[in-house]
């Protein structure tokens, strides 16, 4: 949860669908900054009051905001409950020690089986599988990600520069994100989606070109569980369940359960999904 320091902060108890960030160290501070930039509702759990102060000062200077904090041990049930674990949509375990991230993941999963959990790992070789068995949906090695970024800066610097500028554009936040078709509230598209849901083989169709026409979003890819028997080949990525169709043609037919990968402004995404600024970016 991000609040204006001039206003009273809403209680954590009122939050729902937020992200819990465990750890406000060097990695955590970068995550906090990104969450603030993308207007993601979040709560930070941290024991070190010094780390909290440094993170809050950074956010005040850059965004004139403050974030909600629960002071305590992120591996304990009570601490996670005070952060609203039962109502949260996601949790990031970004503590400095793999053991702590493991226990935070295990505890969080037991308290909220539907939670999306992303866990930091230092010892990739020995601890990745443990994190996954504990309930992490994704395990991220900061060393590997850092190495990939450095290599990309050398090999394709203009692409990296473009993506950085896109994600940090002044004035408007440009998002490169997933958008489930089920979340679209634009009347024309929602009506077609419902018609497809009621009658999958009926005359009503929803095409990629309809998304651009009614929303202004650029669709980069479509993630779908279905297979087109006429075009799927043995080695075609789309032949695999829930894989991506990249650069789909305008006449590509969508299904109600498809997930779009799109580029668009945060304001446009909010308007399309009916989200408020406080909830924006929660699925990023």
List its salient traits.
single chain; about 280 residues; alpha/beta; Rossmann fold; Alpha-Beta Plaits; 2 domains; seven-stranded mixed β-sheet; four-stranded antiparallel β-sheet; 10 helices; 11 strands; about 20% strand; disordered N terminus; disordered C terminus
Question: Could you give the order of strands across the largest sheet?
Answer: 1-4-3-2-5-6-7
Examine the secondary-structure arrangement and name the CATH architecture of the largest domain. Answer: 3-Layer(aba) Sandwich
Class from helix and strand fractions:
alpha/beta
Helix content: 25-40%
**Main sheet properties:** 7 strands, mixed
Global Rg:
20 Å
| Count of individual beta strands | 11
CATH evolutionary superfamily of the largest domain: NAD(P)-binding Rossmann-like Domain
The CATH class of the largest domain is identified as Alpha Beta
Helix count equals: 10
Order of helices and strands: EEHEHEHEHEHEHHEHHEEEH
CATH topology of the largest domain: Rossmann fold
Ends apart, CA distance between termini: 15 Å
Principal-axes geometry comes out as globular
- Strand percentage lies at 15-25%
Uncertain segments are 3-10, 229-241, 277-284
Q: Compute the number of structural domains.
A: 2
Please tell me the overall pLDDT. 85
